[in-house]
């Protein structure tokens, strides 16, 4: 049964759902939701798929949703065409890389920074790094969202990560001053762990800090969770070439890619 925060529609064996994103809704002050699809059936006709999304959008409006996000595999042309016809806008293209614990090997590396666990006294500095580090993400590219709230979104994210949202927050230090961080998370019943959010202060970029943090993240997850996950995933915008070069250097390989579509209701 549907409720005001969760909507489900079935078509053949395919399940399409819309779920309220509580964190995003609270932060931006509008009801925001994420569309998910399971068991997509390529035999679904374009007409049936179109009608299903029309129904989903109408139900979303009735439930007072104002903003929808839908991540679609880049090879699913049928879904892409469908949501474009429903006036969803392309906000981002994401690419994901995998470090496979059985196949990938970390190279030898000399770290120029000190790496350690995040401490409470680091948080304000990390929040400032977060506020100024993200500009090409799907939030900043969305004209319907306030730019100040897009900046402070990442401040909240790193603070919440330290307070339990992440399993690990690794911090890089120069002269005992935090200059960057990366967060790690392992979800139950998932094959791979994740390095989720990373940033380096503007004055410390180009010095190998980011590569060192990802190296440490791989080392941590492999030591702590090798009996639970088969590797770890990292993701970014497709035009963020610098971090992709760092991942390749460390032994990551391309895993998948997604389009991020958004619609304002």
UniProtKB/TrEMBL annotation:
Gene Ontology MF term list: acyltransferase activity, transferring groups other than amino-acyl groups
Entry annotated with the keyword Oxidoreductase: no
InterPro entries recorded: Acyl_CoA_acyltransferase (IPR016181), GNAT_dom (IPR000182)
Domain annotation N-acetyltransferase: ranges: 113-265
Gene3D superfamilies registered for this protein in UniProt: 3.40.630.30
Gene Ontology cellular-component annotations: ribosome
Keyword Repeat recorded: no
Protein keywords: Ribonucleoprotein, Ribosomal protein
Name of the molecule in the record: Ribosomal protein S18 acetylase RimI-like enzyme
Organism of provenance: Psychrobacillus insolitus
């Amino acid at each position: 049964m549907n409720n005001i925060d969760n909507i489900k529609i079935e078509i053949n064996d395919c399940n399409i759902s819309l779920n309220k994103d509580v964190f995003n809704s609270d932060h931006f002050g509008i009801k925001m939701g994420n569309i998910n699809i399971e068991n997509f059936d390529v035999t679904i006709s374009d007409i049936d798929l179109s009608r299903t999304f029309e129904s989903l959008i109408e139900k979303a409006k009735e439930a007072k949703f104002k903003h929808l996000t839908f991540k679609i595999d880049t090879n699913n042309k049928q879904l892409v065409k469908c949501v474009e016809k429903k006036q969803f806008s392309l906000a981002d293209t994401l690419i994901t890389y995998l470090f496979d614990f059985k196949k990938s090997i970390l190279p030898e590396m000399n770290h120029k920074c000190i790496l350690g666990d995040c401490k409470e006294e680091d948080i304000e500095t990390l929040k400032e790094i977060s506020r100024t580090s993200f500009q090409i993400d799907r939030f900043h590219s969305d004209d319907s969202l306030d730019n100040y709230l897009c900046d402070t979104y990442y401040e909240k994210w790193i603070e919440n990560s330290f307070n339990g949202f992440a399993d690990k927050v690794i911090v890089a230090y120069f002269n005992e001053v935090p200059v960057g961080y990366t967060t790690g998370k392992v979800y139950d019943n998932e094959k791979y762990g994740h390095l989720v959010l990373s940033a380096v202060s503007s004055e410390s970029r180009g010095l190998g800090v980011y590569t060192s943090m990802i190296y440490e993240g791989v080392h941590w997850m492999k030591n702590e969770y090798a009996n639970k996950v088969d590797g770890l995933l990292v993701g970014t915008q497709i035009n963020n070439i610098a971090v992709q070069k760092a991942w390749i250097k460390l032994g990551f390989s391309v895993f998948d890619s997604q389009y991020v579509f958004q619609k304002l209701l």
